[in-house]
Predict the 3D structure of the following.
Amino acid sequence: MMAHGVGAGDWGERKDQRVSWSSLGRILGYARPYRFYIILTSALVLVTATMGLVPPLLVRHVIDSSIPNRDTAELYLLVGAMVALPVASGLLQVVQNWGNTIIGNRMMFDIRSELFRHMLRMPLSFFTATRSGEITSRLTNDVNGVQQVVTTSFTNVMTNVVVVASTFGVMFWLDWHLTLLSIIVLPAFVFGTVKVGDLRFRAARRVQTAMGQLTALTQEKLNISGLVLVKTFGREPQESVQFDQVSGEVMKGQVAQSMIGRWFFMLASLFGSVSPALIYAYGGYLAIHGDMTVGEIVAFATLVNRLFMPVSQLLTVHVDVAGSLALFERIFDYLDRPVEIDEKPGAFDLVRAEGRVVYDNVEFAYEPGTPVVKNVSFRAEPGQLVALVGPSGAGKTTITYLLPRLYDPTAGSVSIDGHDVRDLTLASLSRNIGVVTQETYLFHASVRENLLYARPQATDAELEAAARAAHIHDVIAAMPKGYDTQVGERGYRLSGGEKQRLALARIILKDPRILVLDEATSSLDSHSERLIKEAIEPLLRSRTSIVIAHRLSTILAADQILVMSHGEVAERGTHAGLLAQGGLYARLYHEQFKDGAVPVDTPLADSAEPPPPIAMPAMAHGAFGMHGGGHPGMLPHGPGPH
């Protein structure tokens, strides 16, 4: 259920979140479904690591046995084994890398899919308070950023652990004095690496935060609407400067992240030179005095060189893992956000609603203690039309969003056919309610795909029937590819009226029992408005409708008109009754019209000089100048009353 009163500030990144090594267990949980590949990879790691120990021992035998004994057969056999072992090990590593790649990429697929599904369930307040580019950055940059640690580090850690452990074992078996001498510099190496890892973790978080800002800026300014605004205001130079500033932060952060620890690892690389030198010095001394063979010295030096690379990689992996944990924490930060609009266990599935809608003393607040909707109660019987009117910011849109549970009320209840909407399944709510928002939203896809979004199983005949009912079929048929024509980003290849009629066709195809309509046709020409009115009229028949009316001329035949003021119902009644009361509705009416006439093209807005009146007869029930616009999941511009 909804944690009421979530404000915009609650959805920002959690500044106090620190990396938790317990997250490693959570990360490994994503690997459990791929146990077969993990077992296969682990077995191959053990085999290849063990095979790598054999060549140094073969070298020792060649130097100490084959050459002194002039045994050419043994020499050729040992040399052949030196060649065959790396070839076999390389082939096994190909299979090992295949299994590891499967594990890593499938884990990332699971994480990305889980994050996307979770985002779909987040409340509107989250999206209105979070830049869409930041969300995109988490889904792409952050998930891609962990690819290295997921796909590579697992194998590297396991391989290097086995190599280090087995190499130390053989070195102690050969000579424990030399072994201790060769690892004398390791403690300082490990301590420095831990410190570097902490610095790189912090740098990684800063880089990803800056990358999120860059993605958000790019998406915000390079979408169609943003680009039109930039161009029409001539802001290209300023936007370029802002982009360079944000991009520069990313660049500086990446450079700093890359350079952290470089000096340390340069000094640490001396380990690869100092240790063999110590071995040759001390081992040579032992060989001179007859306590060690030349073959043992060469084998030991080879093992030390074999030891250095795995130790370096293990410590580097620690640094990479520390940095990647910062990305995982950002992903988990989103995954751990509560799903506020959720479905109750055993929720009732309303198969086909009759359409009885009741708001009972409803209150809603975006911020605790500051309700934007207060004490709203009304009833709409099946087939009736309820109109919401009032000035901007009166809470009209917020009231309509409570019905399909885009928000949940902080007090009171909203019910359909006697069932609280919070007790119904989300799927049945979506199935029975059609929402047409004020802004028409079309996907960057074909006309057919945009229509099928309402009902994927619809036939071509049903698509055409819906388009004809919305008076858009002839326009579609005249397009280059008909119903397969791409509409462009946000439908920008279509005119405003065409987009609205296409969105209406989508709602007609869905055929919901209850309609929530936000009417706004004041920006359309008279021809488009007439076509939309003709499309809306049959759509409203025999359906329960809640309409936000921007024109008083469109609600003359409403069964009930609610006049909203400061989030409350100030007046209610029919058009004639409200005029007779002489209250807020009557004042709005007289401000909008003169001499009792009903103009066609006048929006509901305060105006000191109303346009000349145009006489028009009273409209039949359902004759609305509505526009289509979007789908039930369409987001509002931001939190707050509408």
